[in-house]
Specification:
By secondary structure, the protein is mainly beta. The protein contains no helices and 16 strands. The chain has an eight-stranded antiparallel barrel with strand order 1-2-3-4-5-6-7-8. It is globular.
Length: 177
């Protein structure tokens, strides 16, 4: 599958070839071997050149929003690879985000509460798992509809952490401090 990714002024041709459940991905002229695991109702887990990445993918306003390693990237994807792509971290319509624990762990911090307005990149929850702290950020704009955890709480893979309802507007009294 071939497509073009546009991020700001940069344009990059991308090709993805699947073989036996593994992927070869060409970004520009560079080929990468990528092992992908889709975590239940949550982010992707990618293994690239021995490094592991937890990647959230969502959509907003026709753009693809990718959150990885505490950074959020916004891009346009053009070409046949765009159709049928599964949006993780967001709803099937691309609005909002349903964040679930990708693995068992302990909630270290909760940065939002119901009614808070968030934008892509806004910190939501910090989860400690396998002796590492993982910060999860919003992949879509919206209003926090539900927070399913509290600091110190143990969670299992698939447990609901936060729901962000996309496109919702807070009332004038929300967000005022």
């Amino acid at each position: 599958m071939r497509f073009v990714v546009r991020a700001g002024a940069e344009t990059l041709p991308v090709e993805v070839v699947e073989r036996d459940g593994r992927y070869r991905v060409r970004l520009g002229e560079e080929w990468l071997d990528v092992d992908v695991r889709v975590l239940s109702s949550g982010p992707y887990s990618l293994l690239i050149a021995g490094a592991s990445y937890l990647v959230h993918v969502g959509e907003e306003g026709g753009d693809v929003v990718v959150a990885v390693g505490g950074e959020t990237y916004r891009m346009r994807v053009e070409g046949p690879g765009r159709r049928g792509r599964r949006s993780l971290g967001g709803s099937s319509r691309g609005a909002g985000q349903r964040l679930v624990a990708p693995m068992p762990g302990r909630v270290v911090a909760v940065h939002v509460q119901p009614g808070d307005r968030v934008d892509p990149g806004t910190p939501l929850v910090v989860l400690e798992a396998m002796k590492m702290e993982n910060e999860f950020r919003a992949t879509a704009s919206g209003v926090v509809a539900e927070v399913g955890v509290t600091p110190g709480q143990a969670v299992n893979a698939g447990d609901l952490l936060v729901v962000v309802a996309g496109g919702a507007k807070p009332s004038s009294s929300e967000g005022a401090t």
